[in-house]
């Protein structure tokens, strides 16, 4: 498992949205499909696009950067989020 930094590069509202998050995932592809709330979208956003509009409009707008290796036994998921609260 690796540790990734995800950054929202898509259009965003003026406030109340996720700027990014730190996640643990097996690959950059899996990381890209994790919403900062912890929901995993195995097939991309599709029709499950977050109604609140608080994250990237689709996976193409998520920048993924490998930042480390997770400790053994760590499960995929969100470790930390960066939320711009207006």
Secondary-structure blueprint:
Elements: E1 2-8, E2 17-25, H1 28-32, E3 62-69, E4 77-84
Properties at a glance:
mainly beta; single chain; 4-stranded antiparallel β-sheet; 86 residues
Number of strands: 4
Instruction: Choose one word for the global shape.
Output: globular
**What string, H for helix and E for strand, traces the elements in order?**
EEHEE
DSSP strand content: 35-45%
Give the % helix: under 10%
Q: Which structural class should the secondary elements be placed in?
A: mainly beta
Overall radius of gyration: 12 Å
Task: Point out poorly predicted stretches.
Answer: none
Instruction: State the end-to-end distance.
Output: 34 Å
Number of helices: 1
Largest sheet: 4 strands, antiparallel
The total tally of domains equals 1
Largest sheet strand order? 3-1-2-4
Mean pLDDT: 87
Word description of this protein:
- The protein has 86 residues and is mainly beta.
- The protein has one domain.
- It is 6% helix and 37% strand.
- It contains 1 helix and 4 strands; from the N terminus they run E-E-H-E-E.
- It has one helix at residues 28-32; strands at 2-8, 17-25, 62-69, 77-84.
- It has a 4-stranded antiparallel β-sheet.
- Strand 1 (2-8) and strand 2 (17-25) form a beta hairpin.
- The longest helix is centred in the middle third of the chain and has 5 residues, at 28-32.
- It is globular.
- It starts with a strand and ends with a strand.
- The mean pLDDT is 87.
